Amino acid sequence: MRNITLSLDAHLRAPSPGTCAPPEWDAEMEKIKVLPHDTVYLYISVRDTGPGLTESEHEILFQRFSQASAKIHTRFGGSGLGLFVSRKISELMGGRIEVLSTYGQGSEFRFFIEARIPQCLLAATAVAYRPQAPLPRKASPRALPAARVLVAEDNLINRTVLLRQLKHVGMEAECECSCQV
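RE: above sequence
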């Protein structure tokens, strides 16, 4: 059975060059006063216990119209654009994406982007942020600031499910085919 772990983190410091890992939290971070429109770095990691990648698969992973192997397309479909587009978007948002993988043991895809802290989020957050803090069991959709989301998914069923889920949590979502929820 494959296990998938999703990690989210936010930090006021950029990662070290050549990595997408968040910097270590230290006591100095406690003293920083966060102001509206300050830069924050959002870190996202997806780790799985799947088959992992060989060195040759790793080399072509982020190229346009390429997949790790021919059996990936046969088993899961897709055009080989997902990771290429993800790389471009993360770069346009001031970040980068990387994969760490060991053949036979699984992979970790992680990326970071730069964002600005909105005023409404600071006003709603009275508690200091601590990395790796447990997420609430069920967050209220209305507690989130309004957001617009562009969904880029070529599978109609996946796209429909994702659009409905985003609407359910109060977000405005649209897809590349101009369908709106």
